[in-house]
Amino acid sequence: MEAVKKSKKKKANQFPYGIALLVLIVIIGIILSKQSPQLAVRWAFGIAFGFVLQKARFCFTASFRDPVLTGSTSLTRAVIVALMIATIGFAAIQYSAYLNGDTIPGNISPVGIHTAIGAAMFGIGMVIAGGCASGTLMRVGEGYMMQWLSLIFFIIGSLWGAKDFEWWTETFISKSPQVFLPDVFGWGIAFFGQLVLLGLIFIFVEWYEYKRFNTKNLSV
Amino acid sequence: MAEYRLDCLGEACPVPLLKTQKEMEKLKVGDVLIVEIDHSCAMKNVPEWARNMGYNVEIEEVDDGQWEVYIEKTK
């Protein structure tokens, strides 16, 4: 295959830009920390999160789309692992709040028909746009022009959503029940049940990928 | 051994992979397909799919944020 390759084009050295950007990030971090330490922490986490997303080519869209489209489930499994880690972390935070008798932190929101409608709309949108929220932002940073368009309409859509949110609240959200699994099943079953369920899904998608590629290879 | 080029520059994520899949079906064993992409997500799923199918894959970054994926149809 070596003969097929064309010689590389001369690339601009990006190293100085990287150093300049790093210095800029640190300077902005210091300025933010003077305002409030929490801002600086959020700044650092935001940068780190974006870096990991870009380098890992982690994509929530692909995790739901690729199994259907190509049979590849590596990103699906990555999302399941991420959910497991998040489950353990959030359970620790929430359980300690519960033991102290504080109000339980986290986004515990009413679930109902509006959840399903929103999920379907978001799913269709993210596959067409080629990225979910974090994926779109990441590719805006990479300089992928089409995603800049996505971002503009993402903002317009969010504003529109905020405008209609009152109607959704009145019609569906206020009438829907708020489900917090530990209240329903108890902490033990909710926590370990969720981990076991995620583990089962993990095994299922791995089997699915194996099955899909092996039946395909036989027909080729 | 023939080689074919597939221009997927400017195509967002699932499209390069779908085009590659269609194109690979037309190729004979031993042919090489060169997929030109500039979407970082396709950089992951095109080689992954091809390797899963058992093809030989090599990736070359020809320019900043632009790649050529070499896929050799082995079977």
From TrEMBL, chain B:
Question: Which superkingdom does the taxonomy of this entry point to?
Answer: Bacteria
Q: Which residues form the UPF0033 domain?
A: 6-30
Name of a matching Pfam family: TusA
For this chain, the family text in UniProt reads: Belongs to the sulfur carrier protein TusA family.
Please give the name of this protein: TusA-related sulfurtransferase
Lineage, opening ranks? Bacteria, Bacillati, Bacillota, Clostridia, Thermoanaerobacterales
